Amino acid sequence: MDFTYSEEQQMLTDSLRRFVSTEYTFDTRRRNAREHGSFDPHIWSALSEMGVAGLSVPAEHGGFGEGPATQAVVQRELGRALVQEPVIPGGVIAPAILRGFAPPEMQAACLPAVASGETIFAIAYLEPGTRYRAEAARAQARREASGAYVLSGAKSAVWHGAAAHAYIVSAWLDGALALFVVQRDAPGLTVAGYPTIDRLAGADLTLADTPATLLTVQGLEALELGLDHGIAAQCAAAAGAMERLIEITAEYLDTRRQFGKPLASFQALQHRVAEMVMQKELALSMAYVAAQGLDAADVAERRRKVSAAKVVTARAARFVGQQAVQLHGGMGMTDELEVGDYFKALAMADVLLGDSDLHLERYTAAMAA
């Protein structure tokens, strides 16, 4: 897999950087989180027009049919700006599940709307007490005499759930974990949204005999594939966030003076910034490893590479975030600077889509296999 930017990838990167520098400023992002639940339809529409939502959607369904390498390029750029829109759940995880497991008629109905940004999917697989384990779900599906399916149960911590138009929901059906599509306006569905510490948003779902459409009875396999695509994208976004945070920190050290000299002139602080850069480069390399793993024919190889990238990136993200706060001194603890936003986003790199404990266990099992 070649990670050298192609001409098309470079053009897309340049377009995204220009867009976020003018339309997605620090104040805009804060206002978006405060007033719009971290989702702005105008921003989402603009990103969709640039191809972000349909990047992984096959060309026959209105997308661009790009692979993991291009997705890593885009997510790295979006991570630099801490873009809050539901790009990973709606533009990465959902398309991976739909194109890999949904029947042709469902793909034809859903994927064009995903590519255009008209429909945003969220993934509802976590439940209270399940600790990231999809197989521990308790939601139940029932097929009625008419042939229609209804779901009952509760889902928690649905990433960008409040902004979604539809949900991919896991539930047990005849002894197997299956995935279903539930529309936002379906009877019996209650959505309770809330902000998260990183200025994003989550939601809890309650399903009471809620009508649903069967996506696949291979629920565990489909979820694992979709979440692996999401983790690879998340790692690239975290590497981009670290990259930008290091730039912000270096700029601060260049301007802040102590003993008549800029802080950047002190060798001890230079060493700490160098360590931050090394951790960022390590995370970026592992993001490429995760992207490469998505194309592996062997499932165990994919699991090893994705879980290893998740663990290494989470550790690097915590280190870079903590160092940036400390190097900003007292100002790093205030809400006045961007550094706090980046620190919170990087702290969430560990807990989103499975924490390090889960992925270390998964990596070990894949190695044993």
From TrEMBL:
<dbReference type="InterPro" id="IPR013786">
    <property type="entry name" value="AcylCoA_DH/ox_N"/>
</dbReference>
<dbReference type="InterPro" id="IPR037069">
    <property type="entry name" value="AcylCoA_DH/ox_N_sf"/>
</dbReference>
<keyword id="KW-0274">FAD</keyword>
<dbReference type="InterPro" id="IPR036250">
    <property type="entry name" value="AcylCo_DH-like_C"/>
</dbReference>
<protein>
    <recommendedName>
        <fullName>Acyl-CoA dehydrogenase</fullName>
    </recommendedName>
</protein>
<dbReference type="Pfam" id="PF02771">
    <property type="entry name" value="Acyl-CoA_dh_N"/>
</dbReference>
<feature type="domain" description="Acyl-CoA dehydrogenase/oxidase N-terminal">
    <location>
        <begin position="6"/>
        <end position="118"/>
    </location>
</feature>
<dbReference type="InterPro" id="IPR009075">
    <property type="entry name" value="AcylCo_DH/oxidase_C"/>
</dbReference>
<keyword id="KW-0560">Oxidoreductase</keyword>
<dbReference type="Pfam" id="PF00441">
    <property type="entry name" value="Acyl-CoA_dh_1"/>
</dbReference>
<dbReference type="InterPro" id="IPR046373">
    <property type="entry name" value="Acyl-CoA_Oxase/DH_mid-dom_sf"/>
</dbReference>
<feature type="domain" description="Acyl-CoA dehydrogenase/oxidase C-terminal">
    <location>
        <begin position="218"/>
        <end position="365"/>
    </location>
</feature>
<dbReference type="GO" id="GO:0050660">
    <property type="term" value="F:flavin adenine dinucleotide binding"/>
</dbReference>
<comment type="similarity">
    <text>Belongs to the acyl-CoA dehydrogenase family.</text>
</comment>
<dbReference type="InterPro" id="IPR009100">
    <property type="entry name" value="AcylCoA_DH/oxidase_NM_dom_sf"/>
</dbReference>
<keyword id="KW-0285">Flavoprotein</keyword>
<dbReference type="GO" id="GO:0003995">
    <property type="term" value="F:acyl-CoA dehydrogenase activity"/>
</dbReference>
